[in-house]
Amino acid sequence: MRSRTRIRTRRPSRLYPAGSVVLALAAAGSVLAGPAVAVEAGGRADLRADVNRDGRVDVTGGSDKAGENSWSVERGAVYLPNLDDDTKRCPVTGPGGKPLSDAKLAACNDGSDTKVNGSADAADLARVRSVPMPGLGKDAKGSLKVTTGGKHTHLFLKRSGKWVLVTSKTRLSAAELKSGVEFGVEGTDVVRDNAKWDGRAVVRLTVTSGQKSTSDSVTLRVAPLLTHHHLQNTQQVMVTEVQGEGTYSRLQQKFVAELGKEVKKAGVTAPLVKFKKYADPWTQDFVEPAYVSMTGPGGQRHVMRVMLRSAQPDRDAGRELFEKVRGRDIGVVQVTDRAEPDDWSLNSMGNLETIPPYAHGGRSFPAGRIIMGERKDSGARPSKVMRTMLKSQGLQDPLLLDTSWLGVGHVDEFVQFLPADTPRGWRLGVADPQAGLKLLRDAKRDGHGKTKMFSVPGRSDSPAPKETIDQALASKHLVADNEMAARRIAANLEILKRETGVTDAEMVRVPALYTRESEVMTAEGDEIPVPRLTRMGAGSDLVDSLGDRGQQKWLAENPAGSRAAAAATVMTSAYVPGAVNGVLLARDRYLAPRQWGPVIGGKDIFTQAVTAAYQRVGLKVSYIDDWYTYHLGMGEVHCGTNTLRDATAAWWQRPAR
Question: What is residue 163's predicted lDDT score, i.e. its pLDDT?
C-alpha cells in the first residue's frame, strides 16, 4: 500500500532554481482521502506515465516512478492540449457559406469532441499504462477517474485496438487488468489562468476484488504554450499577399515575390504561407506562431504548432488562421478580453518577441522569455487576459519594456535577438540613433551636406523625398527626437541587462534614425500619421492606400485615450527604414529592409554601415525593398512577415552549444 504523497523539495539547479514551485498532489487535495486496502493475492494497483519524458512508459522498471505524483519543469508527465484538426473536420463556414462567428471557429478542434479521429489524432495522446496484475481473481474490476483537471481533460482506453472514452461507467475487466491496460490523455485547452486551472490532470485507477481494493494515481500537466526564439531554425515563412490590381496591391505582390526568392536563397525550402483573404499586410501583428510539445515514441519530440491570434477581435485577418492554417498538428488559440484595450496597437504581436534561453539571478528560462512593450508614460499595457495566459504557462514570464516613444509602440522597432557562438548563445541587436546621426554628421563634415537624404526613386503617385542631409540635420526636431530615442533605448537596455545579465559587449549596435509623426490628408479628407519629412503629396493614391492598409488604419480606427493622456510624449517611427526590424532567415542569414540612404561615392552610407554591423558578428545581410509597402506604413519587413521555427528541442532543457 502506498503512502500519501508528500510535498517534495529538491536542491536548486540552473533549470530548477531555489524558490521555484513544485506542483504536488497534496497541495490540490488530490491525495486519496484514506489508505487503500491492498488486494493481497493480486498485488497493488500501479499506474505509470512518462515521468522522465523519454517517450516510453516504463512498466517493468522504476524509471517513471520517482516524481509521478508531482510536476516540475525538469520532470513530470506531459500531455498536449489537442487543439489541432488532424482530419480537417471542423467547418469554417456556416449554412449557405455564411461566415461563422469567431467563437464558433475557435470552438472546434480535436479536443472538442470525445473521439479519437484516426491515427494522427491518436499520436496526440499522452500515454498512461497500468502495470499488469497477473495474480488477480476473476471477479476483479477496475475503474478510472480524472480527480483533478477533469473539466479540461479527456481520458481514453485502448480496447480491442480502438480508443474508447473513459466515463464514470467504464469498468476494466480482470483480463485487462491482468495483462495491463493502455490509456491516452488529451487536453481540451491550454492553461488560460493558473489561478483557475494550473494545467494538471490527476488520473486515478482503483482495482476492486471482493471487499478489498487498491488505488494508484499519476499526475500529468498540459504542455505549456511557448513562443519561438531565434535559436530555433526557420522552417517556413508566412506573409500576406494583397489581391487586386491597385497601386498598393501590385507593389505588395512584388514584395512577396522578392521575399520568396530571399527565403529560398537562405536555404528555407518550404513554400511561403500566403494569407490572401483579408488584405491585412501586417502578418507579424495578427498572429504569433507558438507550439506545444511532448516526447513521443522513440524519444522524438511530438510538436503541435499553435497559432496565437492577437487580442484584437476586430482584426479579421486572424480568422484565416482557422480557415486556412489549422489542420494536422496545427491548432489556433484566441483570447477573449472584454475590457476596452489600454492601447489597441500594443496588442499586436509585433509587440511580442522572445529572448532566447538564459539563466540569471536565480531564475531560469530554458524555453526563452517573452518581452512586450508598454507605454510607461501613460500606463497603457497589452491585454491583461493575454498577459495572464502567457504568464500562466509557467516558463516565459513576460518582461515589459517601455515603448512610449514609438507611435506604433512595438518592441520589434528597436530590439532583436541574434544567435551567437558564445557561452550565452545569443546577443542583442539594438537600433542605435546616435550612430545614425553620426553618419549624417560625418557626411556633412566631409562636404556632402547637399546630398539627398534618401535615394529611393519617386513614383508617379508619390514623389521622392527631397530633403538633403543638411536639411535633415537642421530640421526642427530630427536631432532632438533621435537623442530622445537613444535615451529611451538605453533605459530599456538597462532592463534587459538587469534581467538577463547580457553585457554591452554582447550587443550589435545598428545605425538607425527615428522621426516624429506628421499628418497628411487622404482623398476622403482624413488625416493619417506618416513618417515626417517624406514629403508625400496629399491625396495621392499611395497615401490613400496607407489609410486602408498601413498601421495608420489601425491607429485611426482604434484611438487610445492613453495616447492622448501622454500628449507630451513625442511619438516616433523609423525615418530611415529600421534595419533591426528585419527577419532572421537562418543562423547566419539576415534579411533587412533596403535602406535607401544617402549615396556618396556610389554607395549608400546606411547600407554600408548596417551591413558592417551585422557582418562583424558573422551574419550575411541581404536587403528587400519595403519603402512603399511597409516603411511608409510605419513598419518594415519584419512587421509584414512571420516565421515558423523548429521546435523539436526539449523545452525543459537549455539548448546544447
Answer: 98
Cross-strand pairs, 215: 206
CB atoms within 10 A of CB 65: 13
**Non-local CB neighbours of 327 within 8 Å, separated by 6+ positions:** 84, 85, 86, 88
Please, which residues bridge with residue 604 across strands? 599
Q: Cα(602)–Cα(157) distance, rounded to whole angstroms? A: 72
Four-residue CA torsion sign, 72, 76, 82, 86: positive
Task: Give how far Cα 205 sits from Cα of 80, 171, 257, Å.
Answer: 21, 10, 57
> What beta strand segments (E) does 472-606 contain?
507-511, 514-521, 527-531, 572-574, 583-586, 589-593, 599-600, 603-604
Q: pTM for the complete prediction?
A: 0.90
Sole residue written with cell 476473476:
138
The reported pLDDT for the residue numbered 43 is 85
Please report the DSSP string for 493-516 in residue order.
Answer: HHHHHHHH---GGGEEEEE--EEE
And the C-alpha cell for 173? 475487466
Q: Which pairs count as long-range contacts for 358-361, CB under 8 Å and 24+ apart, including other chains?
A: 358/424, 358/426, 358/500, 358/501, 359/14, 359/15, 359/17, 359/654, 360/499, 360/500, 360/501, 361/499, 361/501
Residue 102 pLDDT greater than 90, yes or no: yes
C-alpha cell at 206: 482503483
What letter does residue 492 receive in the DSSP assignment?
A: H
- The most distant pair of C-alpha atoms in the chain lies apart, rounded to whole Å, by 100
Q: Highest mean pLDDT: which of 22-26, 334-338, 539-543, 589-593?
A: 589-593
